[in-house]
Amino acid sequence: MESLNFLLQGFGTALDPMNLAFAAIGVLLGTAVGVLPGIGPALTVALLLPITFKLDPGGSLIMFAGIYYGGMYGGSTTAILLNTPGESASVVTALEGNQMARRGRGGPALATAALGSFVATLIATMGLAFFAPMLVKVAIQFGPWDYFGLMLIAFVTVSATFGSSPLRGLTSLALGLWLGLIGIDQLTGQARLAFGVPNLLDGVEVTTLAVGLFALGEALHVASRHLFNDEKPMAIRGSIWMSREDWKRSWKPWLRGTAVGFPIGALPAGGAEIPTFLSYTMERKLAQKPEEFGQGAIEGVAGPEAANNASAAGTLVPLLTLGLPTSATAAVMLAGFQQYNLQPGPLLFVQHPALVWGLVASLFIANVMLLILNLPLVGLWVRLLKIPLPWLYAGILVFACMGTIAANPSVVELVMLVAFGILGFVMRRYDYPIAPVVVGLILGPMADSALRRSLQMSLGDPMILLQHPGSATMIAIAVLALVAPFLFKSLARFRQDED
Amino acid sequence: MTFFRSRLAAGWLVAAGAALSSPASMAQDLELTITAPAGAGGGWDAAARSLQQVMMETGNARSVQVINVPGAGGTVGLAQFVQGAEGSPNQLLVGGITLVGAILTNKAPYDLTAVTPLARLTGDPLVIVVPKASPYQTMADLMEGIKGDVEHTIWAGGSAGGADHMLSALVTQAAGQDPAKVNYVAYSGGGEALAAMLGGQVTAGVSGYGEWQGQIESGDLRALAISYPEPIEGIAAQPLKAQGIDIELVNWRGIFAGPGISDADKAALEAAIAKTVESPEWQDLLKARGWSNYYAPSDEFAAFLAAETERVRAILTSIGLVE
């Protein structure tokens, strides 16, 4: 096994004390920027590029990878504790994670997120080490028609999953789709629904929408109920660690989340969001106690968190094998490679094996470091929840606004944040699910351009969607998922009538 | 290590580069802020941060900060810069051919006549490629194909109205077809378009040479031509002009100062940039980044900019993106 041999040599490189130190700095910085609002791993790596110019390439790339993985870990913390997802991939984590935290189970939620991330990253990094060149061959065959099929599956499963009734779920989704249309159309470069506001030309920022709907909406809702309720801080019930049952309920979602996250992350336009949605839906369908979903089901944290981290490792597949950055952080890391005259691409594995395998090995090491760093932090984080509610929510409001302003310094952005906060409050008040709005915003534009690219390539012939086996299969699955529940229901009714 | 870490802690949030040591004796008094009208990871961000790095290394500025103002192909950053940098002696903006196009397609409130051109810095060749399995071996084959069936010649490249799109339209026109008919599939960047090329879903592709260099060298893509006026050392593909097709299109990037700055301030900034560009450090950086030197001083750049704006307008009008 040649790869294994290379990997062992890679560990030799990565275990060099200097490189270990770089990895440690990386994961510390990454966790910090993951938790802090507004500063993402992409900006951090960009800021560090000029400093690292004089350092040895291996060391600084190892540090960048640590930042990348650390950011993925840190992002879940604020989502669980404060219902403030720092990045779009953590939106799903906030759904069940925050419910768990509010029921005094913040500790197990954070622990299952950290352990799930560890397991997922471990498996996915192995996938990266051994299957990258093979996987990428499949991934580039994925045409726009296949992406469209994937989006259809995501739409159907997501709208059926969230909310008390499909109609409410679809209403929220439609709202999200509408928001997703705002901005410059990718295929023609023309503005849609921007009404001449330049800040709208790039569309609605996912994190602004998510933070507005989740954090601000939540804070307003709590404030509106405050008069009628006794003030009680969120008590921590039970152990802050995972119980035997928590373990039992977590390990399968970790593995399933990884299985979904890694391949989709490796797709050139896969992203980290779709696998988290799919994983959440999957866990909800497979759960022993589906009624707990929406009330803090641990599977709903374990699965999506694993999927999120597995897709982060998946992103490195096209980066290392094609030189194709599929996320902002990956794009900055690519610049990091270039500054040392390294061209990621098909030849990188051949020309610089020591560097690549050192990087892969240090990903394993960074992963272990993150676990050691994050598990003790759980005890510290959950204390945040002992803060009296008015203080906590005031803090969340400040945190949310600060993060939005830091990420995108403009008044328009802040106005949008507040508007989304009010929208979130109204939706909560009238019991409309919130997550489908975010899903619509993320998936809408992707599905739009995938469909139109397909039609452009077929000169307008819609049959192209059915002519490719991949997209035909996925569309069939989506149709089945849409029709099956109704079919089963009427079948059941039919039988009842017969009895 | 502690030395490095303490430096990190002190400086990484504000301006990481500021912690770099620069020879104090040479340092001028310039304290600059460069606006990159794009997010981290893009070409303008890279250009701004490269300039930051070399200006401080060579002591042509005491400190340089880079701020990112992403949005709408750079027009959001431009608008903010025009309003905020009026008469300011220490604010700079990075921009390029894509910004010229975005101003036109977005009907932006300000164009580049509102700012003061200081220098043209880099110019990258665009490359025209076909997948490995394509029947087209030469540029002439591709032109023949376009002539025969313009609609089935599917192009992949970066954002709509960008330099890649413009080049595909120019080639289509040179093949004797209406550029409004060009079947151009826009991707969010060279990366995503690369996947479509490697998957063989499209006929031809356009991107910056550097972005696809790895695949061209490994033989996964066949480079037919570059859009640079002259041959470039280390690039086997020949210019369109050398192949008898009278097209040149350079993905240039330049640096601008705010509106209405005084002549003395302008001269100081120009001199600092000229010295930076002449330094061996800048030449090394260009090489590392795979960029080509395309330096032109202020007056020449201003004239170039006026001509280029009209040319871009004509190309985008021919595609139908601008009325």
Would you mind describing this structure in some detail?
The complex is a heterodimer of chains A (499) and B (323). Chain A has 499 residues and is mainly α. Chain A has helices spanning 2-14, 17-35, 41-52, 57-82, 91-102, 106-140, 144-161, 166-181, 206-225, 244-266, 273-286, 299-322, 328-339, 348-351, 353-383, 389-407, 411-429, 435-457, 464-467, 469-498, and strands at residues 183-184, 191-192. The longest helix of chain A is centred in the first third of the chain and has 35 residues, at 106-140. Chain A is globular and about 65 Å long. Chain B is built from eleven helices and ten strands. Chain B has helices at 2-15, 43-57, 75-84, 97-105, 139-148, 163-174, 190-198, 209-218, 263-278, 280-289, 298-319, and strands at 31-36, 63-68, 91-96, 116-131, 154-157, 183-186, 204-208, 221-226, 250-257, 293-296. In chain B, strands 1, 2, 3, 4, 5, 6, 7, 8, 9 and 10 form a ten-stranded mixed sheet that branches. Residues 1-27 of chain B have low confidence and may be disordered.
